[in-house]
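Hi team,

Filling in the usual template for the complex we talked about on Friday. All components are listed, including any nucleic acid strands or ligand strings, so the model treats them as one assembly.

SUBMITTER: L.P.
PURPOSE: interface mapping
COMPONENTS: two
RESIDUES: 1592
SEQUENCES:
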Amino acid sequence: MTETASEHALSLLDRYWRAANYLSVGQIYLLDNPLLKRPLEEVDVKPRLLGHWGTTPGLNFVYAHLNRVIRERDAQVLYVCGPGHGGPGMVANTWLEGTYSETYPEIAQDAEGMRKLFRQFSFPGGVPSHVAPETPGSIHEGGELGYALVHAFGAAFDNPELVVACVVGDGEAETGPLAASWHSNKFLNPARDGAVLPILHLNGYKIAGPTILSRMERPELEQLLRGYGYDPIFVEGAEPMPMHREMASAMDRAFDTIAAIRQEARGGGPLSRPAWPMIVLRSPKGWTGPAEVDGKKVEDFWRSHQVPVSNARGDADHRAILEEWMRSYDPADLFEEDGRLKAELAALAPQGERRMGAIPQGNGGLLRQELKRPDPAEFAVEVPHPGEAIGEATRVLGRYLKGVMALNEAERNFLVFGPDETASNRLDALFELTDRRWLDRTESYDVSLGPDGRVFEALSEHLCQGWLEGYLLTGRHGFFSCYEAFIHIVDSMFNQHAKWLKVSRELEWRKPVSSLNYLLTSHVWQQDHNGFSHQDPGFVDHVANKKADVVRVYFPPDANTLLCVGHHVLGTWDRINVIVAGKAPAPQWLTMEEAKAHCEAGIGAFHFAGNVAEGEEPDLVVACAGDVPTLEAVAAVDILRRGLPGLKVRLVNVVDLMALDTPAHHPHGLADEAFDALFTTDKPVIFAYHGYAPLIHRLTYKRTNHHNIHVHGYREEGTTTTPFDMVVLNEVDRFHLAIAAIDRLPQLGAEGARLREGLTAKLAEHSAYIREHGRDMPEIRDWSWPYETAARAGQD
Amino acid sequence: MTETASEHALSLLDRYWRAANYLSVGQIYLLDNPLLKRPLEEVDVKPRLLGHWGTTPGLNFVYAHLNRVIRERDAQVLYVCGPGHGGPGMVANTWLEGTYSETYPEIAQDAEGMRKLFRQFSFPGGVPSHVAPETPGSIHEGGELGYALVHAFGAAFDNPELVVACVVGDGEAETGPLAASWHSNKFLNPARDGAVLPILHLNGYKIAGPTILSRMERPELEQLLRGYGYDPIFVEGAEPMPMHREMASAMDRAFDTIAAIRQEARGGGPLSRPAWPMIVLRSPKGWTGPAEVDGKKVEDFWRSHQVPVSNARGDADHRAILEEWMRSYDPADLFEEDGRLKAELAALAPQGERRMGAIPQGNGGLLRQELKRPDPAEFAVEVPHPGEAIGEATRVLGRYLKGVMALNEAERNFLVFGPDETASNRLDALFELTDRRWLDRTESYDVSLGPDGRVFEALSEHLCQGWLEGYLLTGRHGFFSCYEAFIHIVDSMFNQHAKWLKVSRELEWRKPVSSLNYLLTSHVWQQDHNGFSHQDPGFVDHVANKKADVVRVYFPPDANTLLCVGHHVLGTWDRINVIVAGKAPAPQWLTMEEAKAHCEAGIGAFHFAGNVAEGEEPDLVVACAGDVPTLEAVAAVDILRRGLPGLKVRLVNVVDLMALDTPAHHPHGLADEAFDALFTTDKPVIFAYHGYAPLIHRLTYKRTNHHNIHVHGYREEGTTTTPFDMVVLNEVDRFHLAIAAIDRLPQLGAEGARLREGLTAKLAEHSAYIREHGRDMPEIRDWSWPYETAARAGQD
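RESULT (copied from the run log):
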C-alpha cells in the first residue's frame, strides 16, 4: 500500500467532483441562469430535456481521481469512456480543465461560457448528447456499446508510456465484443506497450433493469475477473468521502502496480503476462441526484438513466426538485462570481498535454507520421504476356507488407490484424520478419509466436477491428485481412468508425488519421473447403451506404494491381478502404507498368482481350470487377471471338468500383464522356461482377447506357464445390456470360444460335463431369486454355 | 460420484469411437475401397482433399459418450456442434446410429452406402463439409463461429426435459458472441427450462496458432469458468482408455448434477440460479491421426486442422501414411464384411427418437404448433378521420403481443427478446402479464423481474438473436424488438440464419419453422436522445441481398397497419420478416378495415391525401414508405394542393416494400400493370423513403416509369436534434419534397416558382427557429396543421 491522499486533498477533490456534477446537470437542463444567481424559472429550463444523467456522476468521479494521479505522477493518461452517453460529464471535465475552451474559444471559462456550454448540449446546432468526435480528448464515441476496452488496448499498443483508463459500464459489459475484449491482455507486451486500466463501473442498471454483473455475488464476479487475468481492486459504496478515500487508494495501488510491472518487464528479462490491475467501482446510478421523484425511487435505480426530473420546465414541483438538486452542489463554493472555477480547484487539473482533454493520443492525427512504403515495383510479378503467368495475389501482397513492416521497424507504428487467417490468407511472408503477438506460454514446436510480434491474431473480428481502430485513432497505421463473408461480423463497427471519420473531417482541430484498410479474401468464389455459410460478398453494399468521401472499394484483378492498390491505400488518411482479392493461384494480366496506369485510372479496357481499339465502337462490351469475374470475362470474350470472328468486343475492367459512380456523387466517379466512350451509349454491356448485382445498377444508374447493362453476380447459390462450379451455379461463368451476350445480339442470327447451343451443351457437360469426377473438366482446369488466345491477342 | 461404466462397456465404446473416426477419415479422403479390403490405390483417393480433421475425433468422442448416458438414463439430448466444420464426425455418427440412412435411403448402412457416404462428402453435388441443414439432428451450422452456446440456450428454454450438449471449440470461444453467451445461464429457469451442458473442447489450436483458453494456466481458466457460473469438470489427456474412464465419469457427474438441480428446482420452493455443470475436454487436435507428416508435427498441433496428409492421391508415401492411419482403427474389428456396423457396437446407439440424429428438436418443424393469435381488430386505434387521431404504433403492438402471450400461456411456446429496450420501445403492455426473465438476486423495489418471465433482455443483440434462433429452430415462436441502427450488430447472424432457411426449404424432410420476426424501432428519424451514432436504416438493404423468398420487409405507416403486419408475420414460417415502425406519438391514417385492405395489397393510394380518383391520371405521384416519410409526404401533398389548386396529385403508400419489386424476382412483387396504374408511366414520382434511397431504385429498376422516380432518403446527415430537423437535414421533409415536385413540373411556371420561393423561406425560417429555441416552429409542432386538410380531403 502506498500513502493515500490527505483528507484535505480529498475534500478539494470532492469539490472538483461536485463542480463537474453541477455542470453535467446544467447541460441537461438549463438554457440560462447557469450559476443559479436567481431562483430557477421556467424560461431557464430547456423545452426538450435530453441526456443521460445516470452514468455521469461515476464518470466524473473517475475523472477527478485520474486528475490526481496524473498530477502526482506526471502520468500520461487517455480516458476511454465506454458509457459514451455520459457525454455531459466528459464535456464538463474538459471545460473545467480548460481544454474545452481552448478547442472552442466561444465557450469560455466564465459565466457566459457556462451558459453557452449548457445551452449547446443536445441542442439543435449544438453538440450531441454523447461523447463524440466533438469532445476533446476522446477517441471513442460509445454510442453503440461494446468497444471501449478493445479501443483502449488498440491505443495502448506501441505507446509504452501511456496508461489508458477505460471505464466499462456494466450494461456494455453484457455485450459480446466487450466480453471478448477482456482477453486483450493476452496480447499486451508490458515492455513495449502501454497499460490499460479497466474501471468496471457497476452502477447496477441499464435502461430498465438490473445488469448481469452487478447482481452476481461478489465472489463469483471476482473469480470472473481473475479468470480474465486481472487483479481487481474493489471500490464500493455511496458516501462520498469514504468513497474518495477508497478510490484514491485504489488508484494509487493500480498505478503502483503498473509501474512495478513496467519496471520488471523493462529490465530485459524474459517476458510473461502479468496480472494487470483493474478497478471495480460500485456506485449508485444517478449518484448525488434526486433520491425520489413523484414517489418513485430514482437514485441508485434505473429511473435515473436519462432525465430524472422530466418536467422541470412545465411543473413547478419538478423545477423545485431540480433547483434543490443543483444547489446541493453549492455552486458558490465552486465557482467565482464570474463563473470561473475557484483557483484552488482549478489547480487540481493537470497541466498542458497531461490534461486528458489535451493528450495528443486523443487527437491521433497530431502524432501521425506518414508510413514509409517501399516501391511496389520491387515486388512485381513478371507477366510476359497477359494470362501467361500464374500468381497468388495476396501472397505477393504479403511480401509487400513485409517490406512495409521492415521500413517502419524503428517507428513501431504499423500492425497487421486478422482473425487467425494471416497465413491462410497467404500473407505469411510477414512471418519471415515478425511473429504473431503472444504473451502466454509457448511450446518448443510453436512457430512464429512471440511477445514482440507485430501480427495480431484472435479468432474475433471484433477484436481485430477494435484494436485497429484504437491504434489508428491514436496516430498509427494498420492493415486488417479477413475472410470476406465474416467481415459482416463488424458491419456495425464499420458504421460507427465511418460516422466518426465523417464528423472528424468536419472539425478543423481534429487532424487526419490513417485510413482503415481491409483486405477481404478467401472470398465467395473460392469455397473449396467451406461452403454456403462462407459466401457473402455484401460488405461492399453496406460500405456504399456511407458518405461517399469516406469510403473506397477496390477489386484488383491480379497481383500487380493488388500491389498498386495496397500501396496506395496505406498512404491515405481519414478513409475506409476495402480491397477484395483472392488468394488462389490465378492468371496474371498486367505488368507493373500497366497495373500502375490501370489503377490510377481506376477503370479501363483490357485491349489484349478485346478486339477494338480505343475510340473504335464495339458491338458488345464485356465488363468485369473482381478477380474471378475478370477471368471468366476474359474467357467469355475468347469464346465469343473464336465462335464469332466478325464480332467486335471490348473488355472493360473495373479496379476502383467508385469509378462507376457519377463524379457528382463520388470523387472517384468517372466523367460521363469517358464512361460513354468505354461503355458506349447504346451497345449491350454484359457485366461480370464479384458481388450482388444490384450495386452495379445502383452505381451506374445515371449513366447514358444504363438500361443496356446486364449484370451477373452472386445470387446466393453455393455449396462446397470448385470455384468454377461456383461461378456456374451463379451464372457468372464464361458460358453463361457468352450466352447472355448472344441473347442481346439478335443480329448474330443463326451463327449466334449455333454457338449458343454449343455453350449450353458445355454447361451440361460440366455439370455431369464435376458430379462424376469431383473436379472440373480438363479444359477448365487447364488454365492456359482461355489465355492462349488472350496472350496472342496481347501481341497484336 | 456415481458408479462409472465398466471396462467392458468402455472398450466397446472405444470401438464405436474408432468406427466414427474411421468413417470421418474416409469421408475426407476416399472415393472408393471404403472398407480397405484391398490396398489403397491412387484412384481410391479423391482428387480434391477437403475437410477438417482436427476437431473431428473430439466431436466423435463426445458423441459416443453422450450415446452411453442417453441409453443409460433414457435422456433427451440435443447435440449442438460448435465446431461445425467437423462435419464428417456428425455425419459419421448419424450414419452409425441409422438416422442418416433413414433420412437419405440411398446412403444405406452397408458397404455400398459407406462408399457413397465417403464420396458425397465435400464433393460437387454431395454434402457440404460443415454441419449444415442437411445433417440430421442439427440446428446449428457452425460455419461462422460464435453462436453454438447461445443456440443451445435458445433450444433449452421451455424444453424442460431436454439436455442440450453443446461443444464449444476453443477457437470459437475467442469470439465476442460466445464470450457473452456463457452468461445465458442467468436466464435459464431450472424448473421450466431444459439444461445446457457446455463441453469446452480445448484441443489447443486454431488454423495456425494456439488458442487463448488452451494456453491459460489451469487455475486461471477454472476461475474464469466458475466466474461465468459453471462448475467445470476437467477431462484431460491423450491415452484413449484413461480418457474414456474420465469422460464417462464426467458425463455421469454432469447428468447426476443436472438431475439433482431439476429435482431441487421442481420441488416447488423458491428458485435461484444453480452452478450448472460443464465439461472441459482437453484432448489433442487431430487425435489418433498421424503424429508427423513430412517431418513436421501434425497430431496435437494446428497442422492437423484440415487435411493432415495433403497429397494422398499423387504421392505414394502420403498414401501409405493415410492407409496406415485408417487401418489403425482396424475396420475389420468394427464393420461386418458387408459394411454393417458390428452388432455389439450398433447396440451402443440409443433407439428411435433418443438418437441424437433423430431427436425431434433437431428438426423443430416436427414439433411446431401454430401460434394462437388474437384478432388484431380488438386492439385497433379509433381513427375518426385520417390524421385526426394520435397514437404510438409500437405501444399498440405491445398490447397485441400481450394478447398473443396470454393465448399461448399454456403452450409456453412464445418468447419476446430485446436488448434492454422492450419498455423503451413501448412494448411494455407485456409486463402487465409477464416479467423480464431473471434468476439472480432481486431487490424489493425491482419491477417486472422474475424467474418465469417471458421477456428476455440482455444488453446484447447477439444473445437476443441467437436465443431466438435456437428457440425457433426447435419449433417455437418469438419476436425480437431492437433499435434500428444496432440491428447491424447481428448482420452476420441474420446472414447465417437466412442461409440456413434457404437450404432447409430445399429439404423435404426439414419441416417449416416459424419465421424470425424483427421489429426495428427507435429508428433513424427519432433521435432526440441520441444522435448520429444511432442512425442507420441500412439493415433492410442487407436483407434485400438474400434469397427473395426468405425475406420480407414492412414499413407500416401507423398503428393499425402495424397491428395487421405484426399479426400476419406471427403466422408465417421459414421466413425472416423485418418490420420498421416508430414509437413516438404520431398521426394515424387508417381505420382497422382500411389498414387490413392496405396491408393485404401491400401498396396503395391514400385517397384522403391526394385528389385523383382510382383510374384517373395525376400530374404528380408522391410516394412514401415508412411512418415519418409518410407524414412528410402527406404534408407535402397538402402544401402542393393548397399552393397549386389545379394540380392533380396521388399519394402512394408502401407497406410491403417487396411490392415494389417485380413479380418475377419476388413473390410479393406487384404486377406491372398495377404498378403502372399507381405510379403512371410518365409522370414524376417523388418518393419519400425511410432508408437509403438506392434500395428504392434497385427495387423499381425494371418498372416502366423508373427514370421518373426521384427518391429522398437518409443520406447520413444527423445529430441529436428533433425528428423534424432530422428530415430537413436529409431533405425528406415536406418542404424539400414539395420543392422537388415543383422542380419536376415545369408546366407550373410562375405559380410554381412563387410557391417554391415560399418553401425555401420556410426552410430558412425553420433552421433559424430551431437553433434559437431548441425545438420546432409551432406550425410543425402543431400536429393538426397538415392534417386538417387531410381530414377534410378524407370526407370528399
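MY TAKE: The longest strand of chain A covers residues 162-169. Chain A has a mean pLDDT of 94.

Thanks, L.
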